[in-house]
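Notes continue from the previous slide.

Worked example: a multi-chain complex. Inputs as given:
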Amino acid sequence: RPVVTEFKVKDMNLAAYGRKELKIAEKEMPGLMALREEYKGKFPLKGARVAGSLHMTIQTGVLIETLVELGADVRWCSCNIFSTQDHAAAAVVVGPHGTVDKPTGVPVFAWKGETLEEYWWCTEQMLTWSNGEMPNMILDDGGDATMYVLNGAKYEQDGKVPAPEANASGEWKVVLKSLTKSLENHKDKWTKVAKEIKGVSEETTTGVHRLYQMVERGELPFPAMNVNDSVTKSKFDNLYGCRHSLTDGIMRATDVMLSGKVAVVCGYGDVGKGSAQSLRGQGARVIITEVDPICALQAAMEGFQVARLEDVVATADLFITTTGNKDIIRLEHLEQMKDMAIVGNIGHFDNEIQMAELETKDGMIRENIKDQVDRWQFPDGHSILMLAEGRLLNLGCATGHPSFVMSCSFTNQVMAQIELFQNASLYENKVYTLPKHLDERVARLHLDQLGVRLTEMTKEQADYLGVPVEGPYKPDHYRY
Ligand code: NAI
């Protein structure tokens, strides 16, 4: 492989440590390793130039190296300013066969603690192939890479500034500055890139939501694979992943005893369900807030109190947002919390908590305790502890989901990339989920590791239910 000359990571000397952890992760990611085995020597992604924007962690490292083994030419950045694991980033640049002096891995532009300006610079670098080639696939988490390309193209074509709400992260001015700068030398750069893209595979609820909105407005110029709504993604990563990594993040950040504390979880979707279990597992008394009567009823029947934030804001010890919606914890809520209440978000964007309002409120004192932990003191003297500046705390304050569950998510990602790269012309410019037989296959690939022995149906039983012996076993409308 050629030597990688373009990249920006924190410290290349962390690569050896990163490689050791990548090796451990490979053992825990049987789905990805099975794909490597299955496609050995076949290179189904040969010719694919994959532009990836997804938390640059160890687990993502195994994903990236799987894409490379399958023949893809890959560039990467993180989809969050705090989520990069610097040893993972360095190891991926060095690659499995390179050295720090002669890295032969993948160009990565990511480090933990980027500024917003640096974040969009990294996104732009990730999308810009040095030899004049362009990406033809996007692998996105939250939709920022897709948004950057499409808004860039729009900006070039009609000269108008796309609406600020096109960027859910509320950082529009910074994006625009980056886009304008990127156009100094190439006036139609993003229009060309947008034309080149065969498709995007999207990792998370929030990114998928943005894609469906684009389709509704008739603005999606290529097909998209909704990886999030594979059952083996959202019902595992969002649920069991958050069950692992939420309290991991809170404890690494604060070391606070969770047993006996009152914790409010806003939202009881997949992430909320995992978060509530995570806190309950530590002995916290968990209260849920919801807008959806079905989810509220689920929470109540799971034994959780369901309340309005207003009614519990002054008495709870800990607040976690999990909604993918904005303005969930507002300034007026933060003002009423008890002294040293802990506040954090595990949804995709930081606008679930009114951070901008907190930062600009008169008379606030911000004391940084350590990276990604701040004490904010209000003029009346009481304080709150804010985790990861309101950005997803499981990746900001800890290391995100563990390998095994990310193997489920990323096996779906690789399958989606192969399908879109090889068959994009068979799809309309809409959002698709992977077929159920592939979803079941992802699950199957993870059974052996856990010692699961699956029961096999007889032909008579299969006929009785009207399903094939080898699956798929459920209709598409089945909800698990
Ligand atoms: P979901 O749609 O299953 O759940 C969100 C829930 O929030 C829904 O039940 C909705 O009714 C509720 N909600 C919306 N507005 C509300 C309000 N004002 N008050 C109370 N509840 C409200 O979505 P999912 O899959 O749980 O994802 C949630 C967020 O987490 C998304 O932004 C997603 O991208 C992100 N995510 C983060 C992960 C992480 O590792 N940090 C992993 C997976 C997803």
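Summary box: Residues 107 and 290 are 42 Å apart (CA to CA). The pocket of NAI is lined by residues 204-206, 234, 237-238, 241-242, 266-272, 289-292, 295, 322-325, 328, 346-348, 392, 394, 400-401 (CB under 6 Å).
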